[in-house]
């Protein structure tokens, strides 16, 4: 286990983007939790949504006076091959789970749990990668509530994989899910907490005109003098970049000058990423208006989402899909699928459009509809910004989490 490096964060930075009452509630809950020591555990420090959330949540907790650590698992490619198979199986697709895969999972999770020697008052473990650690942590800290945060879409799991992870859930005192439809893991108590974006990070902060111009130049040869539709996602089969390519080709029948940007990073715990990126790039190589981009700096992603005319998120399965909220925050309408948490963010006909996950033609038609109506795009963009401000900014998620912590520790708030 190792602690990742963390940026500085101050709760004062959020005063201009969220309601005062919410910040005051946050401070009140933080006072109740003062003196409590909390540990977050997950499987990677980079490249995924969980890591991105923790990179903001943990330093903000410390800024508010709550002693909070974050430890990342040490594991090799064999373990991540297994946990990616588990992830896929829980989302409904996968090959049989072998005894060798189970043994690898047990060995690595046990070794990581044994490395945690400090004492904590509450442990919050994230996603299936960490479940095998919980029995050992419960034995070492019997008075500390153990919370488990699931970020995976569990609406249609393969039973074999669900049974495998369920065998490790007994130590969980409270489970947190992103949607009620995912709450298929037994736990004494559960909560639904929507993930959120951090509006003050490099990826989401406001950009001055000169900054936006500089990032625009870095995106060359992508030209913003012609319409641009963008998808920002890890290169992962569930994100369906091939379906987005089909939607783009449908839209070009109405908007022939259209360009497509497929931008994504490589998560540290996802061994499939590079292979899929190469497959997508090969599929698009003959079209000069399709740009496959990887590992762009956060400021460049920020600019790309702002400069694009439409953002697409055509996922087949989706735990939540915070890239949707990122685009909406920047007043860019989104054409998204009805998978996972996307419909919570995209209000169909108000800040974007929703289509069925396998409806690439429908997605293309909706892209074209938006590109051909400037006034509608602007109205959708204004609605999008306000929807995210109300529902999907970090202070709201922190309030939800702190209330769960207070209840789990049986403190008086």
TrEMBL record:
Residues 40-183 form the Trehalose synthase N-terminal domain. It comes from the Archaea. Pfam families: Glycos_transf_1, TreT_GT1. One of its GO terms (biological process) is glucose metabolic process. Keywords: Carbohydrate metabolism, Glucose metabolism, Glycosyltransferase, Transferase. Belongs to the glycosyltransferase group 1 family. Glycosyltransferase 4 subfamily. This is Group 1 glycosyl transferase. It comes from Natronorubrum bangense JCM 10635. Gene3D superfamilies: Glycogen Phosphorylase B. Residues 225-386 form the Glycosyl transferase family domain. GO terms for molecular function: glycosyltransferase activity. The keyword Glycosyltransferase applies. PANTHER family: SYNTHASE (CCG-9), PUTATIVE (AFU_ORTHOLOGUE AFUA_3G12100)-RELATED (PTHR47779). Homodimer.
């Amino acid at each position: 286990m190792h602690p990742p490096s963390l940026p500085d964060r101050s709760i004062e930075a959020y005063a201009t983007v969220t309601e005062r009452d919410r910040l005051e509630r946050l401070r009140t809950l933080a006072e109740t939790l003062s003196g409590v020591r909390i540990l977050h555990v997950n499987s990677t420090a980079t490249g995924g949504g969980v890591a991105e959330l923790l990179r903001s949540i943990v330093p903000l907790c410390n800024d508010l006076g709550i002693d909070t650590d974050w430890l990342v698992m040490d594991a090799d490619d064999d373990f991540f091959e297994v946990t990616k198979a588990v992830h896929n199986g829980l989302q409904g697709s996968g090959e049989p789970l072998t005894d060798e895969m189970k043994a690898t999972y047990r060995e690595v999770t046990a070794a990581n749990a044994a490395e945690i020697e400090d004492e904590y008052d509450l442990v919050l473990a994230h996603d299936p990668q960490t479940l095998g650690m919980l029995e050992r942590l419960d034995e070492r800290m019997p008075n500390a509530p153990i919370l488990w945060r699931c970020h995976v879409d569990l609406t249609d799991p393969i039973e074999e994989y669900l049974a495998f992870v369920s065998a490790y859930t007994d130590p969980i005192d409270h489970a947190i899910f992103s949607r009620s439809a995912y709450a298929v893991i037994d736990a004494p108590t559960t909560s639904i907490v929507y993930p959120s974006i951090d509006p003050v990070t490099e990826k989401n902060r406001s950009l001055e005109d000169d900054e936006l111009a500089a990032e625009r130049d870095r995106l060359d040869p992508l030209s913003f003098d012609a319409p641009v539709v963008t998808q920002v996602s890890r290169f992962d089969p569930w994100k369906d970049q091939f379906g987005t390519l089909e939607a783009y080709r449908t839209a070009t029948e109405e908007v022939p000058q259209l360009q497509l940007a497929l931008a994504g990073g490589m998560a540290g715990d996802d061994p499939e990423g590079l292979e899929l990126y190469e497959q997508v790039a090969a599929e698009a190589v003959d079209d000069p208006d399709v740009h496959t981009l990887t590992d762009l700096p956060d400021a460049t992603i920020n600019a790309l989402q702002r400069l694009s005319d439409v953002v697409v998120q055509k996922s087949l399965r989706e735990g939540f899909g915070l890239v949707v909220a990122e685009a909406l925050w920047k007043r860019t309408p989104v054409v998204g699928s009805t998978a996972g948490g996307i419909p919570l963010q995209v209000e169909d006909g108000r800040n974007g459009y929703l289509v069925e996950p396998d409806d690439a033609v429908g997605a293309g038609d909706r892209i074209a509809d938006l590109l051909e109506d400037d006034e509608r795009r602007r109205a959708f963009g204004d609605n999008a910004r306000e929807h995210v401000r109300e529902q999907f900014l970090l202070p709201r998620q922190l309030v939800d989490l702190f209330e769960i912590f207070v209840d789990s520790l049986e403190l008086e708030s």
